Amino acid sequence: MAKTIKKNQTAEIPTKNGSKYSYQYVDIAQIHEYLEENKMSYYQFIDRIDGDDYIMTVKVNAEGKESLPLRGSRVVDATLFGNDNPAQKQGSALTYARRYSLLMAFGLATEDNDANDLNVIKEITQEEAEEYKFTFGKYKGKSIKEVYETNTSYIQWLLNNDKTDPRIIKMIELVTGEVKLNEEELKERAELIAKFEKLVISTKSSKEKLYEHYGVENNSQMTNEQLIDAIVIMES
């Protein structure tokens, strides 16, 4: 069971219509406090994978033993509104990725999803969602509808991946009618991925062969059913 951390920060960001949107989040300092209380530490670095930057986290226990690097959040390109400062927004994107990578690496959970700290998803219109084209990955330059019609599983993976920009999630929902997994389902998925990673190490299984078997590039693209199946195989 994941340890739940209470949100301790509140912030406001302006919307396109001139109002303000409030949200709460857990800051990195609070995560550090929890880790210090439990005699744990870590270090992070950025690794470029398939053309995208990911936060990698190495956990360090009380004896100083380090874990293998754990892939965390992708560092998204921040979405800008009006006179937003690009450097400041990208800094927020990096902080967001670091924070969520820590939550995933140490099996921590917040009271609810605070992914809205980068963008105001309520402001996205149907027209904006239809016109959006991916700026990353193998479908760069393609619309959500184009990709959904040719590779539905990829869109479903993006929708339920906690690394995906929340604005993209909202646009996927508007274009496809698909719905993101709820908080409990996402927690279950995070636990399955963590268990998958642990078993790969303890059983010295080949990730490459597992990915080839399920037709994916990494474990975050696996469905919950595939993760459970792989876990059963490695435990047997």
Q: Strand order, main sheet: write it out.
A: 4-5-6
Domain module count? 2
Number of helices: 9
Q: Cα distance, first to last residue? A: 23 Å
The helix/strand order is EEEHEEEHEHHHHHHH
Unreliable stretches covering 5 or more consecutive residues: 13-17, 19-23, 78-83, 111-122
Fraction of residues in helix: 40-55%
By DSSP, the count of extended strands is 7
Main sheet specs: 3 strands, antiparallel
Radius of gyration (CA) equals: 18 Å
Structural class: alpha+beta
Shape: globular
Percentage of residues in DSSP E strands: 15-25%
Mean pLDDT, all residues: 76
Fold and architecture overview:
With 236 residues, the protein is an alpha+beta fold. The protein folds into two domains: 1-120, no CATH class; 185-235, no CATH class. The chain contains nine helices and seven strands. The strands form three sheets. It has a three-stranded antiparallel β-sheet with strand order 4-5-6. The chain has a two-stranded parallel ribbon with strand order 1-7. Strands 2-3 form a two-stranded antiparallel ribbon. Residues 13-17, 19-23, 78-83 and 111-122 have low confidence and may be disordered.
